[in-house]
Design brief:
single chain; about 900 residues; alpha/beta; four-stranded parallel sheet; globular; RNA-binding
Length: about 900
RNA sequence: GAGGGGAUAACGAAGUGGUCAAACGUGAUGGGUUUAGGACCCAUUGGCUUAGUGCCUUCCGGGGUUCGAAUCCUCGUCCCCUCACCA
């Protein structure tokens, strides 16, 4: 086999594709659209890693496939170009962050081009360009108008030494990642998006996106964390105030013997003020607050509490209950106050630890005497209500809504729906992001920048100071000191920038009309959106996908689109491992895609990475495996370029290879549709193996060419460069990328017929033996009862069993679904005709009655039409009778009369 | 604690009721080709066997449903992931 220079081939075709701009698309209402999208990458400076290659190999092959199927395919690429690493490079190495980012993008793009990805590069975007982030600002202002963007005080991770806010990821073991000093929480004014307004819709929408992996949907559901419950008011003793506490288990209200307040709870101070507990309480709160950041990672944190000395009243039982401050209560969830009882594990242990009285209200149904003193652990099972006045004797799950209603009726509580989802904190005290387009005016307050003044551009990096302390934007007086757009008096510009998740929450809309300069995007989105196939890492299962869904709904409400859900199908690709670990620099186990491309070419890299595992699964990288894919490509090249010996005639071998070819088209197409490229490639390899064997002897030219032609088309989405080259060598003028996907011809797929022949042959020889044994000269009548879903091997067994009987009736089983019923009926007819040595006789076919009756109806029609025979459905009982007659318990048999 | 996903031959990995001793690839063994190596080609790769063929034991373990189970149900074991003081 001659050496093929795959890199040369790749370069040749990449150039041709680019020159002819064959992947450029525009709206075409006559064609069906298909929007295939990969999560746009962050240009990190390392260039592409294997994860990227996997992502793009997946997306590109799918985009190419859909294109060949006649879709108008939108397949764009861009860059998530804002973010911390650029700024850190500026701080550490005094590098211009814009240049740093642009260089990285250029590097990344050059590598993407080497892979031969079929993007419409005219739609490329980068979030750090003013033409893009202008619309971040525009959208922000729209959200501000609608009250969906707002400012409020919020605790942030604060490093006193560096004088800056830290992202959660920058807090390592409770200390600043840079200076290693402890991080504290600080209340700062922050910008938020009101994603909670959409909590319910975001939750419901998950039911509409059917083709998302269940685990992703579950993760989002958990994150949104809807729970319906009751907020119960616990009046504070000798006070007019009450403590509201959220619960999903109001049935335990009579059991509540103490309340736990979060340390941050505003009532903590009120309750303890002026008492002897005040000092101690403060100490405790301080301690917990400090720990909250540090111990976040700690798994089994000791539950700690502090008694405030105050009491509240249980609104159900009227009993006095203690008010505690406890570290397990979080201000963030519910009301920040937990009603605690004997039916919760954590509460129970806490009460035991601090010797707080407990009371049970639910007992097991079969226990008479149930006392709290006897319990070692909380009783968390369902049971019968006790100690609960009028609710005694009820099952607790039945009592639950009744108690809730009773509390509401008596103004002791209200029904509430609680979400875990918090509003989205979008402000960052950073330079390299979209400036939040508002001005803080002493007179007018927060004033949005007028639309005509957008974009608010970042000052050039030379004009700001990257010291690593504070927000660099604050160092630019030019940027900060402005006039209020309303009252024209001196004001200051907001220096916070936006979270980069804002950029990525709508970029897929922008791709639809990337040049639009009056709006974020125009009506073309109505043609292209939603994204039909979105591909990216599982790490974005919650945040990015949730934010993007939120943005879509918000943009819809602004009136920019009618789309509700942005991504119809979602594929979360698995990770690429090496030596059982994630590839990373620190572990030193990186396989650079460039090496693979240099050595074997882009097609091999793409093919292997798709072949080695299903896209969702993680897989172990192996160089040897890549060689296998390389071999396959060489074999395909060989098949197409080295002619076999030709002959004029067509024999069974030719028929068989045609059958195999069409079968492969069918299987590969199905596997593509199911997003199983590894299976598709497996089938292609099988075809290649078959063609190899087939061409050992001389072959029919037409048949051979058809096989190779289809093979080339099938492999084109995976190995596009090779396919183009081979396609050209086969004498085609049009590029294979522009060709249509092959259609399979069902009539050519005669595997079933082959099977039938074999079946008939085998049964004949066996039945002949039986007839001989039974001493029958000429069988006169044969009935076939197609009873269940039997396969040939069983049939054989029956035939064998028949050797011991003198009876003369035949019973053959078949199958459940229509296709199989038909197939088996066909064999049955053939067998009987052959046995009777009379092709004119049409046997009667009986089908056993089963639950799946419907699926038989079509089969019966076909049988009747094709064989001119009567097909009947008989009851299972009759089959039983048939079985009984054969004296073969539990197993019917073939009987010849 | 809650939720999700897994376990298939030496390895990776297909296969979700019958054409299943289980695709495909690696690896291994034998043979061919080659000056040698490499590359390439062919065969074998659970066991026992035949001229095709056939039989037996297999898809983490136990039990079940079925004429029939790698596939469905059930109980268990082990592994992975996500969220988690959520009231």
């Amino acid at each position: 086999m001659e050496e093929v220079d795959f890199n040369k081939i790749a370069a040749k075709w990449q150039k041709k594709w680019e020159e002819k701009k064959i992947f450029k698309v525009k709206v075409d209402s006559k064609k069906k659209k298909y929007y295939c999208l990969e999560m746009y990458p962050y240009p990190s400076g390392q260039g592409l890693h294997m994860g990227h290659v996997r992502n793009y190999a997946m997306g590109d092959s799918y985009a190419r496939y859909k294109r060949m199927r006649g879709f108008n395919v939108l397949y764009p690429m861009g860059y998530d170009a804002f973010g911390m690493p650029a700024e850190n490079a500026a701080i550490k190495n005094k590098i211009n962050p814009r240049k740093w980012t642009e260089d990285n993008m250029a590097l990344m793009k050059s590598q993407q081009k080497l892979l031969g990805l079929s993007y419409d590069w005219d739609r490329e975007l980068a979030s750090c360009n003013p033409e893009y982030y202008k619309w971040n600002q525009w959208i922000f202002l729209k959200l501000l108008e609608r009250g969906l963007a707002y400012k409020k005080k919020s605790p942030v991770n604060w490093c006193e030494d560096c004088g800056t806010v830290l992202a959660n990821e920058q807090v390592e073991d409770g200390a600043c990642w840079r200076c290693k000093n402890p991080v504290s929480e600080k209340e700062l004014e922050q910008w938020f998006f009101k994603i909670t307004n959409y909590a319910d819709e975001l939750l419901k929408g998950l039911d509409d996106v059917k083709d998302w992996a269940e685990r992703v949907k579950t993760m989002q559901r958990n994150w949104i964390g809807k729970s319906e419950g009751t907020e119960i008011f616990f009046p504070i003793e000798k006070s007019k105030e009450a403590i509201p506490a959220f619960t999903t288990r109001p049935d335990t209200v009579f059991s509540v013997t103490f309340i736990a307040l979060a340390p941050e709870h505003p009532l903590v101070e009120k309750v303890t003020k002026g008492t002897k507990y005040e000092k101690e309480a403060k100490k405790f709160v301080e301690k917990v607050k400090r720990e909250s950041v540090i111990d976040r990672i700690n798994e089994e944190k000791e539950k700690e509490g502090f008694f405030t000395g105050k009491y509240a009243i249980n609104p159900a039982s009227g009993e006095r209950i203690q008010i505690w401050i406890a570290n397990f209560a979080v201000m963030d969830y519910g009301t920040g106050a937990v009603m605690c009882d004997a039916h919760d594990k954590r509460d129970f242990r806490f009460a035991k630890k601090y010797d707080i009285p407990l009371k049970v209200v639910i007992k097991p149904a079969n226990v008479k005497k149930f006392r709290v003193e006897d319990l070692k652990e909380a009783h968390t099972d369902d049971g019968i209500m006790i100690n609960s006045d009028q609710f005694n004797g009820m099952h607790n799950r039945k009592a639950l809504p009744k108690i809730s209603a009773w509390l509401v009726k008596n103004n002791k509580g209200k029904k509430v729906v609680n979400f875990k989802l918090r509003d989205w904190l979008i402000s960052r005290q950073r330079y390299w992001g979209t400036p939040i387009p508002v001005i803080n005016c002493k007179k007018c307050g927060i004033v949005g920048i007028p639309e005509k003044d957008l974009p608010v551009k970042l000052p050039p990096p030379e004009k700001v100071k990257f010291t690593g302390e504070g927000n660099p934007l604050e160092s630019s007086e030019e940027f900060v000191n402005v006039k209020c757009p309303k009252c024209k008096s001196a004001a200051t510009r907001e220096t916070d920038t936006m979270d980069t998740f804002v950029d990525s929450s709508w970029y897929f809309f922008r791709y639809c009309s990337p040049k639009e300069d009056k709006k974020p995007f125009d009506d073309e989105v109505e043609y292209w959106m939603p994204v039909d196939q979105y591909i990216g890492g599982i790490e974005h299962a919650i945040l990015h996908l949730l934010y993007a869904r939120f943005f879509t709904k918000a943009l819809r409400d602004i009136g920019l689109t009618t789309v509700d859900e942005p991504f119809s199908n979602l594929l979360n690709q698995g990770m690429v491992l090496k030596d059982g670990m994630v590839m990373s620099k620190s572990k030193g186990n990186i396989v650079d895609p460039r090496e693979i491309i240099d050595k074997y070419g882009a097609d091999t890299a793409r093919l292997f990475i798709l072949f080695v595992a299903l896209p969702e699964k993680e897989f172990e990288w192996s160089d040897k495996g890549a060689e296998g894919s390389y071999r396959l490509l060489k074999r395909v090249y060989y098949l197409a370029t080295e002619k076999p010996k030709y002959k004029k005639t067509v024999d069974n071998k030719d028929k068989h290879i045609l059958s195999k070819t069409h079968q492969t088209i069918k299987q590969v197409t199905e596997s593509y549709e199911e997003l199983k490229p590894s299976v598709a490639i497996g089938k292609i390899i099988e075809l290649v193996n078959h063609i190899y064997k087939y061409r050992e002897a001389s072959v029919n030219k037409k048949v051979y060419e058809e096989a190779v032609k289809n093979l080339t088309l099938l492999i084109a989405p995976f190995a596009p460069h090779l396919a183009e080259e081979v396609w050209e060598k086969l004498g085609n003028k049009k590029m294979v990328s522009l060709e249509s996907w092959p259609e399979y011809d069902q009539s050519r797929i005669d595997k079933e017929a082959e099977f039938a022949d074999e079946l008939v042959h085998n049964v004949l020889s066996d039945v002949e033996k039986i007839i001989e044994l039974a001493g029958i000269k000429e069988p006169k009548k044969i009935t076939l009862i197609i009873a269940a879903d039997w396969k040939y091997t069983l049939l054989k067994t029956l035939v064998t069993a028949m050797k011991d009987t003198r009876d003369t009736k035949a019973v053959i089983g078949t199958c459940m679904d229509e296709r199989k019923v038909k197939a088996y009926a066909k064999y049955a007819v053939k067998i009987i005709q052959a046995l009777l040595k009379d092709n004119s006789k049409i046997p009667k076919i009986l089908l056993e009655e089963k639950k799946e009756l419907e699926s038989y109806k079509a089969a019966i029609e076909t049988i009747e039409k094709e064989y001119g025979t009567k097909a009947e459905i008989i009851s299972e009982k009759e089959t039983e009778n048939a079985k009984a007659k054969q004296a073969l318990p539990g197993k019917p048999a073939i009987v010849v009369e």
